[in-house]
Amino acid sequence: MAKRRILRLLILLLSTPLITISRWIESSSSGTFSADLERCLNTVDKFSGSVPLPFVATLIEAEDHRSVYHLGVDPIAMLRAIWIRIVSGRVQGASTIEQQFVRVVTERYERTAARKIREQLLAIALARHRPKNSVASAYLAIAFYGSGCIGLEGMKAQFGAQLHSPCERQVLLFISQLKYPRPLRPSTNWQAKINRRCEAILARRRRSELQRTLDSQPVLLPPSESGGELI
């Protein structure tokens, strides 16, 4: 529990500059920032609760496992991505669900620092006004899953109108398509990527379950020097 409190505090401290700027822009801006934030809020309100919880929970595990700790941006993921880029030259994602949602709603995909910072500021503002599960549900309702499968209509086409029929494996496979969208003609290489993604999500889930189990265990105090128990 102490580790979680420290993690939450660390993320808050690292995020404070962006949070401060986001609040200032929201309070003083009447231009495109406010318009885009309004679009995001309206989209969340439109699709909030439209996707069942198993999809939402799996999305958070797969794309944003520190979601409960951050306020729209994950500075730890950002620092990790920067380090990996410096050390190995590989590009690794660090976007939270709020950021991914903002990107889809605003249709801003340009690879510039200005766009990325603006996206982060909007994500923080969005997280101030709407619950995380509502944002996650709305994101799934508009996301791209591959050829011929977009948003809520694509999900219903695959799983039925109520979205209550899929098993755990089907949910994992479907959420994995956010990272590896299904091509028009799926290849064995694509299927291998999807399977590896599912295993990675399951491994993270098992680690989280183990940590929750350990956190719930009572703390056993050592016996006193006199041989009695500490009260």
Written account of the structure:
The protein has ten helices and two strands. A hairpin with a 2-residue loop joins strand 1 and strand 2. The protein has a single domain, classed as Biosynthetic peptidoglycan transglycosylase-like (Penicillin binding protein transpeptidase fold), CATH 1.10.3810. Helix 1 crosses helix 6. The model has no long low-confidence stretch (mean pLDDT 90).
Please supply descriptive tags for the structure shown above:
mainly alpha; 10 helices; globular; two-stranded antiparallel sheet; about 230 residues; Penicillin binding protein transpeptidase fold
Topology:
Elements: H1 2-28, H2 32-47, H3 53-63, H4 75-88, H5 97-106, H6 113-129, H7 132-140, E1 144-146, E2 149-150, H8 151-159, H9 168-176, H10 188-216
Antiparallel strand pairs: 1-2
Helix pairs in contact: 1-6, 2-5, 2-6, 2-7, 3-7, 3-9, 5-6, 5-7, 9-10
Give a quick precis of the structure.
By secondary structure, the chain is mostly helical. It is 65% helix and 2% strand. The model has no long low-confidence stretch (mean pLDDT 90).
